What we know:
The chain is of the alpha+beta class. It has 4 domains: 1-29; 51-60 and 292-401, Beta Barrel (conserved putative lor/sdh protein from methanococcus maripaludis s2 fold); 68-75 and 214-290, Elongation Factor Tu (Ef-tu), domain 3; 79-209, CATH 2.40.50.100. Helix content is 30%, strand content 38%. The chain has 5 helices and 24 strands. The chain has helices at residues 2-38, 111-144, 149-179, 224-227, 387-401, and strands at residues 46-48, 51-52, 54-56, 58-73, 77-80, 86-91, 98-99, 104-109, 181-183, 188-193, 200-201, 208-212, 216-222, 235-240, 243-256, 263-269, 280-297, 302-304, 307-315, 323-336, 340-345, 352-354, 366-369, 379-381. The strands form 5 sheets. A 6-stranded antiparallel β-barrel has the order 4-13-16-15-14-17. It is rod-shaped.
Amino acid sequence: MQAEKTNKDNSHRGRGVWRALLVICILILLYLVFKRVTKPEEEIEAVPLPTVSVTRATEGDLYVETELIGSMQASDIYYVTPKVAGEIEEIYVEQGQEISEGDPICKIDNDKQIDSAKITLDSAQVALNSAQSSLDRMTPLYQAGDVSAQSYEQAQSALQSARLQYEGAKLAYDTQVEYATVLSPVDGVVESESMDLNAMVSQSSQLCVISGDGAKKVSFGVTDRLLSALSQGEPITVTKQGSDYEGTVTEISGMPNAQTGLYEVQATVADNGAIAQGANVQVSFVSDRAEDAVILPMDAVYHDGGKNYVYIFDAVEELNSNTGTVHKVEVETGINDGVNYEIKSGVKADDEVILTWTQQLYEGAQVQLFVTGEDTVATVETDAPTEAFKEASESETAVEEQ
């Protein structure tokens, strides 16, 4: 009986413990629910939207200019040599002097040649006079029948021969006199002269170099890639000491220079004598062009993994005229002039493209335009960056670090 009573007491105590534990658990649960219900709501932070600047894609012509070094030359160069040998007696010109056609350059002492030619001329004159006198005496005799026709014809032939000999001797004499003074063959400028008084010269001696006063020409070399951009009549620009002069391509070599490997190009330049012959000048010409192309500033194009992208601003009119959504678009670029790109695909004219770089740019991001003179800042309520934002930021950061 006593054992049975003890078992009952133990059973009552066990149930009491469980009831106490259950009450404690219920109280704890009620406390937690109360704390959760009565906890004040966390304030949601209002984060301002990223501010960006945009530009509109335009349509127009894009030109790429190439600049090279060329050398100025006169269009016509004359190397003056004497036509007789002798001693230089007088010099009439100096380097840099402007001269006209027919102006004297120098005088050469060729008196011996002149004297020899004069003797020949005098002898021819005597022979001519003798032949003329002989024919004059024979003419009336021939008319009277005292001289045969054959004799008369021989006298006529002798006179004709004497006259030809005299004319030849006269020409030789005049030539020697004329050659004694060397004359300029053209209007121009004496580029150089190599004459000394009392120096002996021959018919192969160079006295001076004269450049014609016509338009100068510039000579420069181009690679085979640039060769296709040039043709006869193509305009060029020559620059010297800050001044520009227009020119036109006149000659293009079909074979490269054996020493330089470049193709020689020549162009006329109207410089009005402002550039000295032999001077090095800058030559520029259009080497590539894109007409009626979509054009964007190079700063608006980003490079990632060998591809080119832009961020397009898509305005959300119902929210704010200055608020929009970002779209990342792959583009194909063409030529560039160092400032702008030709856009072959991906963007059309008048698309608004973001210029401002920020790590908050990603596909679908909300941004606002920077407007001068406006203080209003658009905001978006968030308590943490979205996964899309974090992934985009990490991706762009990795690209920048590369």
